[in-house]
Write a structure and sequence with these properties.
The protein is α/β, with parallel strands linked by helices. The chain is 41% helix and 22% strand. The chain has eleven helices and ten strands. It has helices at 15-22, 26-29, 44-65, 81-92, 106-111, 115-122, 150-164, 190-205, 220-230, 254-258, 262-269, and strands at 4-8, 32-39, 72-78, 96-101, 127-131, 141-145, 170-177, 210-216, 235-240, 274-278. Strands 3-2-1-4-5-10-9-6-7-8 form a ten-stranded mixed sheet, with helices on both faces. Helix 1 (15-22) crosses helix 3.
């Protein structure tokens, strides 16, 4: 599933605790762990001091995560942390980026120059965001969003692989409709029921039973967060189509930041850490 993790560690927040909980999942425990700490650009003398401090932060993080020191690779880089995280993720070909987040709203994130928000918008790699204000628990109850798209199928696959590795783990899928559809002659809401039925079949084919929830509302992100709270989810797996054209790779998608991005709402308001599965970039 995830074989090469990039953990961007600032020495703050709950990232270390989240990784320690993930060590209970055998497939993730077997993954290669790369810990990154970025220091600002400065003089060579200043960089050496910050490098030593950064190495202490990473060594402490390894201990808090419950990792064997020899099993984790530590990286100290200099530069703009937002750009460095994206660059190192490409260098390592990381299949999961793990970062902490202050949970700022869209406009606040822009004004505060939020690192996690920037990476969240620009990376095409799966990303696990751990908000500073969350209580981190052992992962037993996983929720996944369902919308019938290809990237949603990828999210279901990832969620099923996680649950398969969790003794007693449970999976719930949530599908949100913006308005009540017209029932079919048999009394079923055909299009939306088909989406849920297909998700159940896909999960079953992966060896996992899935409970489904169909929610209705105008704010899809809020409905997803409400559903996650109702089942006391420990982890929320969401799918996000990447609408950015390749020429805009270096620009933050302002229509998402200032508009009605569902994934961004969930990032800020979800009652559990969020694992974002992105649509692969087409080259």
């Amino acid at each position: 599933m995830f074989r090469n993790l990039l953990i961007a560690d600032s020495g703050k927040g709950h990232v270390e605790e989240m990784i320690r909980m993930l060590q209970d999942i055998s497939s993730i425990k077997a993954a290669r762990v790369n810990l990154l700490h970025v220091v600002p650009e400065q003089s060579q003398a200043g960089f050496e001091k910050h490098r030593n401090d950064a190495q202490c932060i990473l060594d402490r993080a390894i201990s808090l995560m419950g990792l064997e020191p020899r099993s984790a690779r530590t990286l100290v880089r200099e530069g703009d942390i937002k750009q460095v995280v994206l660059k190192v993720a490409d260098e390592l070909d990381a299949d999961l980026i793990v970062m902490g987040s202050r949970g700022l709203g869209r406009l606040q994130s822009i004004l505060a120059n939020s690192t996690s928000q920037y990476v969240f918008q620009l990376s095409t790699r799966p990303m696990l965001l751990v908000r500073d204000d969350l209580y981190i628990r052992h992962i037993n109850r996983v929720m996944v969003t369902i919308d019938g798209t290809g990237v949603s199928d990828d999210a279901i696959r990832v969620a099923c692989q996680l649950v398969n590795d969790i003794p007693g783990g449970t999976l719930t899928g949530v599908h949100v409709v913006r308005q009540e559809p017209t029932p079919s002659r048999e009394g079923r809401t055909e299009n939306n029921d088909n989406v849920l039925d297909a998700a159940v079949q896909k999960a079953r084919g992966l060896g996992v039973g899935i409970k489904t929830i169909r929610a209705q509302g105008t704010n899809v992100g809020r409905c997803v967060c409400t559903a996650a709270k109702s089942v006391n989810a420990d982890l929320l797996v969401i799918a996000s189509q990447d609408r950015r054209p390749l020429v805009a790779r270096g620009l933050v998608d302002l229509d998402k930041l200032l508009g009605g991005s569902i994934s961004d709402y969930i990032r800020v308001h979800a009652p559990a850490p969020v694992l974002l599965v992105r649509e692969p970039e087409r080259r």
